[in-house]
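User: I've been going back and forth on whether these two constructs are worth ordering. Before I decide, could you fold them both?

Assistant: Sure. I'll take them in the order you sent them. The first construct and its C-alpha cells:
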Amino acid sequence: MKLEGRIVRAVGGIYYTETQEGILSCKARGIFRNRSVSPCAGDIVTVSAEENAEPLIESIGERKNLLIRPPLANLDAVFLVVSSCEPAPNAYLIDKLISVFESKDIETVLIFTKTDMLDSSELAGIYTGAGYKCFFTSPDTDASEIREYASGKLTALIGNSGVGKSSLINRIFPELCAETGEISKKLGRGRHTTREVCLHPLEGGYIADTPGFSTVDIERYGRIPKEELAGCFREFAPYAGKCRFADCAHLKESGCSVTEALSDGKIPQSRYDSYARIYSETAAAEKIYRN
C-alpha cells in the first residue's frame, strides 16, 4: 500500500510521517543516501506500508524551499523570535536570517518577546517600515493572533537560545507543557530546550518548534551570492535599479541610488550596515572558495 504523508518529526533516522492511516514510524530507502538527499520535517513523501513490514519512505515530493539547519522543508513563513532583552536583540543576526529567508521565498514574521521588561517598538518599527509583520508578547499576553496568522500554513519558530521560544510554544499549545529553559546570566543566553524539529498541527497547518542556535550556527542557514544579496533587503527595491552602474554593489560606488537613499534617511542605517557586513563576508568567502 502506498500512502502520501508529511514528515512531522525526524529523530535518528526515524521519520514520523502523518498519513491518512495515522502517524507512521518510517525509515528511508538507501537510495536517498546515494543521492545525498535526506528526508526532513515538512517533506511530503510517499510511504510504502506493507503488512508485516516496516514502513519505508520511497520518494520525496518537490520542495518549494529547504533550510539545512534546522532541517525543514516547504515553509510558508518563519516566526523569527527576538527577545527585547536577555539576550539583547542583535540587529545583524536578525537581518542575516531575514535575508536568507527572503532568498528562499519564505515570509518572515517577527515576534518580540519579554516586552513587559523592555519596550521594543523602536526596533520593530525598522521592520514594520519594510513591510514585515510584527507581534509583541509577554508572559501575560495570549497567542491568539499568532495562532490566527499561522492557521493553514506551515510555519516555524526560529530564534537564538534564550529568547523564549519554549514559553511561546506553551502559550500557543498549552497542552504541550514544553520544557522551558532558564537564562544563563554568565553566557547571556539560555539552554537549548528543544533538541529536534517537531511539527505541531494547528488548524489546517503546522508550527515547527526548532532548537535554539548560537551566533556561530547562523552560517548553516544558508549563504547568498553577493550579487543577489541586495534583492533580499526590501528597503533597497525602490532604488536598486536606478544606480549609475548596472553591477553596483551599493557600497562606495558613485551614483549609487541606494547609498543616496541611505543619506536621505529613507533606508535605516542598521539595515544598511547589516547589508554591507554580509556582503563583505560573502565576498571574502567566495574569494577563498575560488582559490
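The second construct, handled the same way:
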Amino acid sequence: MARRRREEEHENHERWLVSYADFITLLFAFFVVMYAISQVNEGKYRVLSDALLQAFKPADRPPARLQPEPRRDSQPAVVPLPIKLPADANRRRVEAKMKGIADDIRKVLEPLVKEGQVRVTESPRGIAVEINASVLFASGQAELNEDSIRSLVAVAQVLAGPGNAIEVEGHTDNSPIGTTLFPSNWELSAARASRVVRLFTQAGVAPERMSAVGYGEYRNVDTNDTPEGRARNRRVTVMILPAGEGGPAPTEAPAPEEPAQTP
C-alpha cells in the first residue's frame, strides 16, 4: 500500500481569541460588581452611621437611639409646633392701656383742655400732659396755686393705679430771672418740676416711679419772639411712659433672718 503522506501540522494563529474572551468576561464581572456596590441601602447606611456615632461619642452623652427606617406606606408623624403669641399682641394691649390713661386725664382736666391751657398728646414715647405754667404758678415762683392743686391731685389719682414711670419736666421762656431763690431759669424750671412731683407723692403716686428735670429755656415748643410764644414755652410737662420703660427695676424684700437658737 502506498504510504499516506503525513499531513503537515499548521500553526493556529487564532489563540489570542481565548485570552480576549477571558478578558472580556473579567471586565464584565468587574462592572457587575461595581454596579452592585453602588446601590446603597439607605436604611442600613443610617444604622451604620448611627452605630459609628455611638462608638465615637463622648462617654458623658446619652447613647444615640437607632431610628428604624420608616415604612413607605406610613403617614409622616406630625410634630406640634410651640404656640407663640403674636408679636404685636402685647403692643396693642399697652396702647389700649395708654389710651385709657390719656382719656381719663382729658376727662379730669376737661375745662383746662377746652381753654387751651392743657394739651394731652399721645406718641410712641408715651403720654405728654403739657400744662401752662400760668395755671400752676405765679410769675417767677415755684409754689403751686390753690386752684391748680385740685387739678393736679385729680391727675395724680389717675396715675396712682397704673405702674407707669412718670417724668415731670419744667420749662421756661428765655426771659432772665436772676432772683435770690432762682439765679437762672435752670433753678426755676427744676424747682417747679420738683414741686409737682412732691404733690403727686402726697396724692398717692409711688415716688420711685417719678423723676423731676428742669430744662430751663432750652426745650422750646414755640418762638420766644412773641408774648404768645413765650407763654406757651412756660410750661410743666408730665410725661407718662409706657409700662416697662424708664421705671426702676423691681426689688425683692430681703428674707427675714432666723433667730439664733440657744443650746
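Notes on the second construct follow. The helical segments are 16-38, 42-56, 89-108, 110-115, 133-136, 146-160, 185-202, 227-233. The domain at 90-240 is CATH 3.30.1330.60 (60s Ribosomal Protein L30; Chain: A;).
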